[in-house]
Design a protein that fits this description.
A hairpin with a 4-residue loop joins strand 6 and strand 7. This protein is an alpha+beta fold. The protein is elongated, with a radius of gyration of 26 Å. It has 2 helices and 10 strands. The chain has a 4-stranded antiparallel beta sheet with strand order 1-8-9-10. The chain has a 4-stranded antiparallel beta sheet with strand order 4-5-6-7, covered by helices on one side. Strands 2-3 form a two-stranded antiparallel ribbon.
């Protein structure tokens, strides 16, 4: 009898197994490349947010008016954080919000009037200072942290921030830095203007301002953020630090 040419069943099974292994390896490599590319984009985005706001703070703080020239009286220098020659003065997320991080599964940060912790300072900013523009108008500049809401509160179901399943870490809620730039209205005797305007995306996990005891002219700013690792199983902390000297 004439022999037929072809593959045996075992050879076909082996070939198919090798083929599927190669497909799996190619798919796994492609998936990792996509995840790493997404991680790089997210990291660059967070760093861009942090660097942009740090540059803005540095530029404005250097214009701080450190002497009382009236309009209104007493509105000068850096009231938050206040200077203390005996110890460093620090303001950050823990000062203006409750509960303290790390958060449990059902917890979200509370800000402003929603923060009922008597040990916190919920209605005041993390950083505040006064400048005078080229027209001689006095400005009160403030920076603080918050999360988006619909005006009804900060807890579910009214919470409007990033869903917790998308946080880099479920223990650290991503916030946005809020900016206020108010001018003094001598007619009404009030501050009016921009209040709590978001100037970053919701990617900041802490914003710390320190006035060291060794100098009343120095402001130290630390901004922190997080991104999920390429494997999505953990997170990476990002921190930018700046030391600013008051010029005026």
């Amino acid at each position: 009898m004439r022999k037929r040419k072809g593959f045996t069943l075992i050879e076909l099974i082996v070939a198919m197994a090798i083929f599927f292994i190669l497909i799996y390896m190619a798919f796994a490599s492609f998936t990792y490349i996509l995840a790493f590319s997404q991680y790089n984009r997210q990291r660059a985005n967070v760093q861009d947010n942090m660097q942009t706001i740090l540059d803005q703070i540095t530029k404005e703080v250097r214009q701080t008016v450190t002497e009382d020239i009236g309009v209104p009286a007493g509105a000068y220098g850096v009231p938050y954080p206040s200077y203390d020659s005996s110890s460093d003065s620090t303001r950050n997320l823990a000062i203006i919000s409750t509960p303290d991080e790390p958060l449990s599964n059902l917890q979200y940060l509370q800000f402003g009037s929603s923060d009922t912790d008597t040990d916190d300072d919920p209605l005041n900013p993390i950083l505040q200072f006064y400048i005078i523009d080229s027209n001689g108008v006095k400005h009160r500049i403030s920076y603080t942290l918050g999360v988006p809401t619909d005006g009804s509160g900060y807890s579910p179901p009214h919470y409007k921030g990033i869903p917790k399943k998308y946080w880099p870490s479920k223990e650290y809620e991503p916030c946005e830095i809020l900016y206020s730039n108010e001018t003094w209205d001598s007619m009404t005797g009030t501050w009016t203007g921009i209040q709590d305007q978001p100037v970053t995306e919701q990617v900041i996990t802490n914003f710390t301002v320190v006035r060291p005891a060794w100098s009343d002219k120095v402001i130290q700013v630390v901004i922190e953020g997080m991104v999920k690792s390429p494997t999505r199983s953990g997170y990476e902390k990002i921190k930018l630090i700046s030391q600013i000297t008051l010029r005026q």
